# Entry
Amino acid sequence: MKVLPLLVPSVILVVALSFYFGSFNSGLSSDQSVWGAFGDYVGGILNPVLTFTTIYLLIKSLDSQNRSLDNAERQALEARDALLKQQETEGLKQFDSLFFVFTEIAANTYGRFVIRVGHNKEFLGHEGITYVSERLERASAESKDVIAEFERLDESHHNVIYELVQAYCSIFKMILEFCPEAQRDRYISIAVSVVPVKVVHLLSMAEAYTKWPVLESTRTAGFFDKASVVGLVKHFKKLAEK
# Structure
């Protein structure tokens, strides 16, 4: 197929010359006018054929160049996609490490959470949060200022409530700022699942009674939109209304 464009004009030339020389009875004429007519004859036969062949070869060359460009473009796109995928994978690995660090910090903060009552009583971890919740229930039952009681409990214990709330809110802030968008919802779900039940209660108290800026990222992540959390926030708000 590749030699066909060259073979066709050659065959046409041979056939044309055969017919022309056949008119000389296999001999050559000595008449110059005959040779002039021969030149015109050959030119008239070959020029269109060569023009067509040239155009055909030019089209084939352009087509080959276009295919080469298409292949080069496809390879460039594949290389770009592979690079982006590699970068995304590396970025996700780095984020995984960051996510683990923040969840560890939050868990350690929860482990250190303590509410001291008097000189001998200490309520650690979930017991401390239960103590805070019960104090708020009691303040509401006694028609005291629940919001002021919550703030007093935090301040009198060196802001341990704020510190714990901030530790878990930082996880959501980190997700919103650093997690690849395609994976964000998945990591928010994971973050929600690692928040201990009692910490969910404490976050709900903070949402109900404070305007702490650290809550903004947790709010944006949709944590307080979950049905169970909505119910808790409403419950704690009602305590302050009594």
